[in-house]
Design goal:
The complex is a heterodimer of chains A (507) and B (102). With 507 residues, chain A is mainly alpha-helical. Chain A has 15 helices and five strands. In chain A, the strands form two sheets. In chain A, strands 1-2 form a two-stranded antiparallel sheet. In chain A, strands 3-4 form a two-stranded antiparallel ribbon. The radius of gyration of chain A is 31 Å and the shape is elongated. The chains are: A mainly alpha (507), B mainly alpha (102).
């Protein structure tokens, strides 16, 4: 349970996020912009980014179901407005997992994308339209000084520029400084350590380099160029608020200054092969790097004397004793349950509860250490990532703790209801009925009878006789199973597949 | 443990099991049959795919011969038989005759 003091401490930790210091140009500190921490504010977040406001934190929704609240000062995100998702990276990106952060989106800032899964088009769009226009409109940054201030020392940590798309405004800033100092960078991991190779597709189509050179001279000699986003003078400026104003690249040139720059296709500046998933060595990084040094198993059975928490605690204690490790040596936990991972799992596991709380205070970045609780539900993932990010927030501001104990038999609470298992898995759609259809199909398909099941049961019971923690510890024979099947009392031993009642038969 | 699992376990002087291959797979089927009309009710596609990936990582080409111990999911007896086949321990239609009895 998160206490009020811990919440205050985490909130204080959020407030202490290190921010880029203003540069030496005397520019004032940026106004702190909107902080978005909920799904409903995702739209506002994307708008804020496109408007150039600083976004401290952002909700990240990937795959339309998972969300993560992360924060990493100095990282830049890419907004995918079409899919209402934010795709960005923090260096710990894994495919299919919500790892994203949006931060530091200021006018003229660089859109840095370190994700192979992100869409370069959005990075390009962000860099080519908004940031360029904002920078050009800024009266004190004709050469993107605010960008330089914003980059600061972080630029040394980025990869070399790989794919670059230039708008006329960007080119004006880029050419005089020699190279890509004024360009927005779209950086990919595969580009690390590789010389940059601008793609021909990203180059402006109609204007040539000579035209850009002319425009460059205009920029240097005509200060009023900043009045137009495209650098074509006030006569060609689109109405404020129009689509063309929002996307200056859509403006059609009339050849007055030789610059006709059309909006490129939506396709990204460079096609990349998808990362292989589940193929070959390294698809999952645990191979040959993880060893099991201890296990713990409680006694199976109808443990009415124990709660779910008690069972988890006992099993975890046995595993640690078997491994010979202390609770202080536990660094991380991967807790999984048929239900969504509940806080009860963390509390019950020795060492993980305190580690979680300390990690939530200590971590300053999503890559920081801590306990990652992973369940099979997006809710658990959100909560886990929220812990790592130092932000503890339930979905839609809901309940912070939803620890559930497994109700005992006879409890009015149904075990499967609301705890991860859909209600559809009841009655004729339950496991027993579904898997019974598998047996029926298997028998009919391959021409065997139920005697094949008896052999498996005999084997399993023999294994159980060797296991002190097994529920059934009495070996059986094939003849006994056949005799049991003929017994009229066999239905009493059926647990998972109740016999249909007369009412159900009627239905 | 990630840096040198075997060495770390050996330094502790305790027996250990090194994970050579691990894979996960999710597929339609089982309860969600409406998403996979081709499901034959005699196999689990997710099990087959995960086993294929794990064997590739571990360098196992013939699991029936190279795997010494297997603990399969057996929520119901028929599930265990099907898992024998999906894991490659037994040929299709031969799950009931595995493991070979002396």
């Amino acid at each position: 349970m998160v206490t009020a003091g811990e919440r205050v401490a985490r909130r204080s930790a959020v407030e202490r996020i290190p921010r880029p210091e203003p540069g030496g140009d005397g520019a004032p500190r940026r106004r702190r912009g909107r902080t978005s921490c909920s799904t409903r504010s995702l739209r506002k977040t994307s708008e804020a980014i496109e408007d150039g406001r600083h976004v401290d934190r952002a909700i990240v929704a990937v795959e339309a179901k998972r969300a993560a609240i992360l924060r990493a000062p100095g990282r830049v995100g890419v907004v995918d407005r079409r899919h209402a998702a934010v795709r960005a990276t923090t260096g710990q990106h894994r495919e299919g997992v919500a790892v994203a952060v949006v931060c530091g989106a200021v006018p003229g800032y660089r859109a840095i994308c370190t994700s192979v899964r992100s869409r370069p088009w959005y990075a390009w769009r962000f860099s080519a339209s908004r940031s360029a226009r904002k920078t050009a409109q800024s009266p004190r940054s004709p050469a993107g000084c605010r960008s330089d201030r914003s980059r600061g020392s972080r630029r040394s940590r980025t990869w070399p520029v790989d794919a670059v798309s230039r708008s006329p405004a960007q080119s004006r800033r880029a050419e005089p400084s020699g190279g890509r100092q004024g360009l927005d960078a779209i950086v990919h991991p595969r580009a690390a350590g590789r010389p940059s190779t601008p793609s021909r597709r990203n180059q402006p189509r109609s204007p040539g380099r000579a035209d850009l050179g002319v425009r460059e001279r205009k920029v240097e000699g005509h200060a009023g160029i900043a009045s137009s986003p495209t650098g074509r003078g006030a006569d060609h400026a689109a109405p404020r608020g129009s689509a063309k104003a929002r996307h200056p690249a859509m403006l059609d040139g009339d050849g007055s200054d030789g610059a006709v720059w059309r909006r490129p296709r939506r396709r990204g500046p460079e096609r990349r092969r998808p990362t292989p998933r589940g193929r070959g060595e390294g698809a999952m990084g645990l191979a040959n790097q993880v060893a099991i040094i201890g296990t713990g198993t409680i006694r199976f059975g109808e443990n009415f004397h124990q709660s779910y928490t008690d069972m988890v605690y006992e099993a975890a204690s046995l595993a640690m004793a078997d491994a010979g490790v202390e609770t202080q040596e536990i660094q991380a936990g991967w807790l999984r349950d048929l239900r969504a991972a509940s806080p009860a799992d963390t509390r019950a596991t020795p060492g993980l509860s305190s580690a979680t709380r300390s990690a939530s205070r200590r971590s300053r970045s999503p890559a920081g250490g801590g306990v990652l609780r992973v369940g099979d539900g997006g809710r658990a993932e959100r909560r886990a990532r929220g812990r790592i990010g130092g932000i503890r927030r339930g979905p839609r501001g809901g309940r912070r703790e939803d620890a559930r104990e497994v109700p005992s038999r006879g409890s009015p609470r149904r075990p499967g209801h609301g705890a991860g298992a859909p209600c559809a898995l009841q009655g004729p759609h339950g496991p027993g009925h579904v898997l019974r259809s598998l047996a029926t199909r298997y028998f009919k398909e391959y021409g065997i009878d139920e005697s094949a099941l008896g052999a498996v049961a005999v084997k399993n019971h023999w294994h159980g006789s060797l296991n002190p923690n097994a529920h059934f510890q009495r070996a059986i024979t094939l003849s006994s199973t056949r005799a049991r099947r003929r017994s009229p009392s066999r239905s009493a031993s059926t647990i998972a597949a109740p016999r249909p009642t007369a009412r159900r038969r009627a239905c | 443990m990630r840096a040198d699992a075997r060495g770390s376990a050996a330094r502790r002087g305790r027996p250990h099991v090194l994970i050579r291959g691990i894979a996960f797979s999710v597929a339609a089927g089982y309860w969600n049959t409406q998403f996979d009309p081709s499901w034959s009710f005699t196999s689990f596609r997710a099990t087959r795919e995960a086993a294929r990936a794990a064997y590739r990582m571990a360098g196992i080409s013939d699991p029936a011969r190279e795997v010494d111990v297997a603990e399969v999911h057996d929520c119901f007896t028929i599930t265990e038989i099907i898992n024998y086949e999906d894991l490659g321990l037994a040929a299709p239609e031969r799950g009931t005759s595995w493991p070979p009895r002396a």
